[in-house]
Every structure is written in C-alpha cells, then in structure tokens.
Amino acid sequence: MGDPNSRKKQAQNRLRAQLRKKKESLADQFDFKMYIAFVFKEKKKKSALFEVSEVIPVMTNNYEENILKGVRDSGYSLESSLELLQKDVVQLHAPRYQSMRRDVIGCTQEIDFILWPRNDIEKIVCLLFSRWKGSEEPFRPVQAKFEFHQGDYENQFLHALTRKDKTGIVVNNPSQSVFLFIDRQHLQTPKSKATIFKLCSVCLYLPQEQLTHWAVGTVDEHLRPYMPE
To answer: Is 179 in contact with 63 (CB distance < 8 Å)?
Structure first.
C-alpha cells in the first residue's frame, strides 16, 4: 500500500492536469464561505461582522486591466503586480453581504460601507472557509491571512483625492491578498463639499496551491472574536 499523503497528492496533481486541459480553475471544485469583519479601535466596541451571500471565484487574468490600472493610479509597484499576474492565483469576489447582528433582520444587500473619512476602524479582516464541491462535510478555515489595516488604505485614499475618476478605484493591502473596490462620492453641505470613499466590493487573492491548505477549528470558533451582540 502506498503512503496516503502521497496518493492524495498524486490525485490532486491529476485533477489539476485535467483542469488545465479544460481551462478551468481548481477553485471551481470548491464551495466557499466568506465573512468580512470591520474591527474598531475601541476595544469595547464589537466588530461589524457580515456574511458574504455568494463568493465568486475567477482567474486573475480576467481582471488584469483593473490591476494594471491600479498600478498607474496607486502606490504599489508594477513589478509586484506583474509577478502576481504570472502566478496561478484565484480571485474570490464578494459583491453582496448581510449583517450578522442579532437585532437586524437578515437581508442581503450590495456591499456599501463608508471607509473614509473616519478614524474609528482599526482594520478589515476577511475570513475564508471552503470545502470540496458536493461534499456534506462542514466548511473548514482556509489557512491564509486576509487583513487590511486602516493606515494602509487611508494612504491610498489620500493619493486618490487628486484623481478625477469617480469609480474604478482599487486599493490593496501590502501583501496583495485583499483588494477593495471603492466608489468616490461627493456630499454638498451649505458651507463645503466633502468627499467620501465607500467600499462596494471585496476581492481576496489566493494562490491555487493554498486551496487545500486548511487550518483547524470550526466556522463558529473562528467567527467568535468578531461576533456582534
């Protein structure tokens, strides 16, 4: 009898080869759950936690134009972005979510969250869970870190203030694992005109090889630190 881990690896390699022939993504073989937590600087204030209604996996090259536009308009380098595009990376898009607050009637809505100007957010944390498609096993946590600290996206917003485009703004965390799609809006007051940046979509970047890297623990255990009252 062969080593079980070796047989599993061989089976995964055969699956990847079949997918390459079909021009499909390995991510298409998984179901995903994603949660987005807005963690506040005030430790006594519970996080705002949302469950993504549908996680949409696509290949990186489908969004190459947006990534390169982000290079032109933002602070991250062309070299690092080209390196990202050349990797076998899956994008996991989250366009809609619903609040996890117990006092809010659950309803799915387009992602719409003001990120700037405000200084009460410490970071955005995304939690990703997966299982093989068609499996009845519980979702397991993907062993990857998805965090975006307020200081990192605020610097990019300040840079974006000098640009004229209203939509199509994309910002990313330093590790390029979290991309935020942003809408710019202007609010006219009697005395002044204010600019706000609102989150309208979240995208996680995950190398395909990490799709089968799971951490221990249940969904509830990983959500507990962010669960609102």
So the answer is: no
* Encoded tokens for 26: 């390995």
Specify the pLDDT at position 17. 60
Q: CA-to-CA distance for 26 and 32, rounded, in angstroms?
A: 13
pLDDT at 19 over 60: no
Instruction: Express each pLDDT in 168-204 by its tens digit.
Output: 789 999 999 999 999 988 877 777 788 899 999 999 9
175 found inside a domain: yes
Whole-angstrom Cα distance, residue 97 to residue 108? 5
Domain encompassing residue 82: 25-226
- The number of helix segments (H) and strand segments (E) in the chain equals 5, 13
Residue found under tokens 């996206």: 153
User: Domain count of the chain?
Assistant: 1
| Domain presence at residue 183 | yes
Hey, which bits of the chain come out as E strands? 30-40, 48-52, 56-59, 89-94, 96-99, 109-110, 113-116, 121-132, 140-141, 147-149, 169-172, 178-188, 193-207
Q: Give domain status of residue 146, yes or no.
A: yes
